[in-house]
Amino acid sequence: MGRSKQFDPSKSLDVAVDAFWERGFEGTAVQQLCRAMGINPGSLYGAYGDKHALFLAVLDRYVETVSIEATDRIGRNPSGLAAIRDYFDHLIEAIVDGKRRWGCLITNSAVEMARREPAIAAKVDLHFARLETAFGAALARARAAGELGPSVGLEAASFLVCLVQGINVLAKTKPSREYLRQIVATALAGLSKKPEVSAEVTA
After folding, report:
1. What's the longest Cα–Cα distance across the chain?
2. Positive/negative CA dihedral, 157, 163, 142, 89
3. pTM
4. CA distance 110 to 125
5. Are 83 and 138 in contact (CB under 8 A)?
6. Is the predicted pLDDT of residue 197 greater than 70, yes or no?
7. All domains of the chain in start order, with CATH
């Protein structure tokens, strides 16, 4: 008899996260998933259902680990602007030296599948809403501390979400750290009460 259950579904799911994150839904074959996860197709279908069901589970896993950790970072610093800068600093480092070089799995999925997959669109919308809420809370702290420019309102949270998504897409072009820092510095300079010094792009 086959031993289809002799694997850790949680660890295997983390492997599947990386596979889909790097190659996307359409670019990842079931055979590739099985090889990466160290299981046979019967084990995959028995534990997770079909490829689509596995992908939905992967999106949830990604949010529970990568996304929530990044979003929580925005709430750690009492200074709202410092928290926002810290979030983008961490994002840039993850793009240059980490798995974010593949972009963001949620952003990638939005581009690839959200228009034709309501279940995925719902997960994407929820993720963006959580990120916007976190940025909104940071901006509220910044407003209370007198850190924001006079024309900056809490609606700037939507702008920051758009900035994140643009950088996530740009990540796949292998941008330099200096280039990403220049983009972020220029964007955040518009929020601060005191003009920020933009990072210089080096050759």
Report:
1. 70
2. positive
3. 0.86
4. 9
5. yes
6. no
7. 62-189 (1.10.357)
